Amino acid sequence: MCVFCKIANHEIPSKAVYEDDQILAFLDISPVTKGHTLIIPKQHFDNFSDCDSELVKHIHEVSKDLVKHYQSILNPKGFNLLSNMNTAAGQSVFHVHFHLIPRYDENDGLVLLFNHDDSVQYTKEEINQLILK
Ligand code: AMP
Ligand code: ZN
């Protein structure tokens, strides 16, 4: 059983901030900012692509409630909501989780860079291939 399944089963303690029969939200053990929270389904899926869409919807609804709640308590200037899929994208725990990260300023603990890569070019054919039909 994976570490987040054990947390969902209360076999490993966590600092839970929300729980119902389907999902659990708890404070990250290595927070990048104050309020850094992980939201997981209790059922195991490896990543967000595998995760049942109704559960993702429910996680999104609870994320929005947490945003409103944290806004009133922590007064951040913004939030990131993100989920990593596979090692190449930074996933280290292979039970789907969404990071909800309150943001305070550009020097806080999260560095998220979208560096423009000039070498990325598209032919018309490549763009056509990318269109979801
Ligand atoms: P990721 O790299 O996207 O897979 O994120 C995994 C996150 O899980 C990291 O931010 C870890 O700090 C966090 N984490 C790992 N183990 C625990 C735990 N026992 N309780 C709370 N957070 C954890
Ligand atoms: Zn699991």
> Total number of helical segments?
3
The pLDDT mean sits at: 97
Order of helices and strands: HEEEHEEH
When the domains are counted, the total is: 1
Task: Calculate Rg over CA atoms.
Answer: 17 Å
Proportion of residues in β-strands: 15-25%
User: Which sheet architecture does the biggest sheet show?
Assistant: 5 strands, antiparallel
Fourth-level CATH superfamily: HIT-like
Q: Based on the coordinates given, report the CATH architecture.
A: 2-Layer Sandwich
Helical amount:
25-40%
* Uncertain runs: none
Q: What class, by secondary structure content?
A: alpha+beta
Strand neighbour order, sheet with most strands? 1-2-3-5-4
DSSP, total strands: 5
Ends apart, CA distance between termini: 38 Å
CATH class: Alpha Beta
Question: Which fold name fills CATH's third level, the topology?
Answer: HIT family, subunit A
Q: Can you tell me the overall shape?
A: globular
Bound molecules: adenosine monophosphate, zinc ion
